[in-house]
Amino acid sequence: MATNEGEVYFKLIGDFDPDVVTKEIGIEPSRTKRKGHPRPKYDSWQYSHGKVVADFIDVYEMSAKLITVLQPKEPLIESLVLREAGEARRVADPKAAKRGRGRRS
After folding, report:
1. What confidence category does residue 86 fall into, taking pLDDT thresholds of 50, 70 and 90?
2. pLDDT tens for residues 1-18?
3. Is the bond preceding 38 in cis, omega lying within 30 degrees of 0?
4. Phi and psi of 46, rounded to 5°?
5. Is 3.30.70 the CATH number for 4-91?
C-alpha cells in the first residue's frame, strides 16, 4: 500500500474572473474558486497534474511536467498578475513526501 501523497501545483490568487484567466492562458485549470462572503476571500485559478499516491514521490519530475506546460505561457501569466494585482504561487517541496507538508514560495 502506498504511504505518501503529493501534489505540485501553480496557483493565481487575487481579484479576477477565473474564466478570463483560462481564456487568456489557454489552459484548463484543475480548480477555480470565486470570491464569496465570507469565504473564500479571493478568486483563484489553479493548475496541477493531480495528486500522486505512491511509496516514492518524485516532486522534481512532477515540477518539470508542470513547468513544461506553463513556461510557454509565462509572458501571459506575468501580464495577468501585473494587471490584476494578484499573486502567483508555486507549491512544492522535495521533502514534502517525507514530512507530509509542502512549502510555498
Report:
1. low
2. 768 899 999 998 888 899
3. yes
4. -130, 140
5. yes
